[in-house]
Amino acid sequence: MPYFSDELIEEVRSRNDIVDVVSQYVRLSKKGSTYFGLCPFHNEKTGSFSVSPNKQMYYCFGCGAGGNVFTFLMEYENFTFGEAMETLAERAGVELPKQELTSAQRREADERARLLEINKEAAKYFYMLLRNNRGTKAIQYFRKRELSDETMKKFGLGYSDQYSDDLYRYLRSKGYEDAILKESGLVTIDERRGGYDKFWDRAMFPIMDVHNKVIGFGGRVMGDGEPKYLNSPETKIFDKSRNLYGLNFARATKKSQLLLCEGYMDVIALHQAGFDNAVASLGTALTSGHANLLKRYTKEVYLTYDSDGAGVKAALRAIPILKEVGITTKIINMKPYKDPDEFIKALGAEAYQERIDQAENSFLFEIRILQQQYDMHDPESKTAFYNEVAKRLCGFSEKLERDNYIDAVASKYMIAVEDLRRLVNRYGARIGMAGGSPAGAAAKSEPGMGGAGGRERDASRGRKKEDGMKQSQKLLLTWLIENNELFLKIKKYITPEDFTEEIYHKVAELVFAQFEETGSVNPARIVSMFQSEEEQREIAALFNARIPAALTKEDREKALKETIIRIKENSINYRSQNLAPTDLQGLMKLVEDKRALGELRKMMTIR
Fold it and tell me: What is the pTM for the complete model shown?
């Protein structure tokens, strides 16, 4: 990662108001001094996503996502910190200095650049081979699949020669040595056999990232060899779980959704038919990395997987992964044909568009597939099916949404709406669903519950109950940044040493040091001092504990005093248990703190 000074990072951050930046992605409405909207990081119907202009931070009380303006771009756009820094600097008109890389960084950058060069050279070579006499088999294969010359050119399709060291010898002639060729994944270096190609006698599909750089390849064997399809191994420039085939074209589509396929030929056939919004995962099942990448470009994905059993299983696996990041999913039915390629060849683009228009809601698709496991002519099996459906309907935390699905399922499977609703309510009572909302969802609005959240994005799945002492330490940190005058009131009793959680202690040191130095606290700047998104989210939670708004001044002072007492008692107990017998200075500090704690207990309020 490029190095930027703390001062430069703070200049860029301070010149990008977080409300202005987040408003480009999320519709916000002002309530008091804070802005609220629907969280872009998990699926919700009520706005628990807050943006504070005073703190210059965002925080979601539903899923725990939070941080400053850098964190937001890193999460939403899937940027590295360097990419977020460059984007915000350009937005604010701040010129970033040319980066002086360390020798290790320079080697890493040079290696990545050379790997991209090698892949580009290989793509050009495969492209050329397809178009001369050596590529006859592959060109006939592509023509048999009804691909036009224009489509073959658009996707850079090629051919790897039948000789197993052809590409190796070509790249060596271009000056690339064995070590870097081995790293490219295109060549295997064997002491006995020498260098030989990963791909030979295959129709070649270059894989490009969103910036149109070739990062890997897929190859379809010519003839009866195995495996039928072969993909590049993962390298420093190719991560299968974070790239999608065709996204370099689909990202510019004007359509509102993306079509997610299983294979290269499906994507190419759809693009040729005018569906420029088609993409596919790269020889691997859909991952959360793919889902987050899709989230950058769309809020709606239509699964157009194979219609066979394997395709159905893949769709059932993909639906919860997409839902987890807040993507609405529908399923395209291609029967009686196997895949989009076959469907379009048989019925054409207009018929395929009709199937898009008729795409099935993902939940109703899951229920339809579930129903196939039951004998609906047998009363016992039919009852078991309805019970399983009722359990799944309890997964909808919003009452209105749940009722709509109850109506839809009851209508489709011929069960009285009220009977199904009673069944759902019975199961809901067992899991704590009351007043139309699961108990887990209601808990997030309890006073003082900030919610760590972590990577968990679906609030309806609940979060681990937080340790009481963590809550107290978090609450005090939030109080301090919201009312800097409290420092003067508590410094006699509380120091950063009293925050016993490791990351809380680090943050407390920064908070107290900032106040001593400037007389105020800049929480967004503190977030920038931590590198990982996980830490930034946790720190955002420390600064966003929920403080009950309805408390009187006397009640707030009492709550503050009780919080300080709990933290101090915990600190004394922690240090007592970990005190070395020869640490006389530590022992004297404990005695002094116990005396101060006694004084604090006698006071009614902290003045």
Answer: 0.61
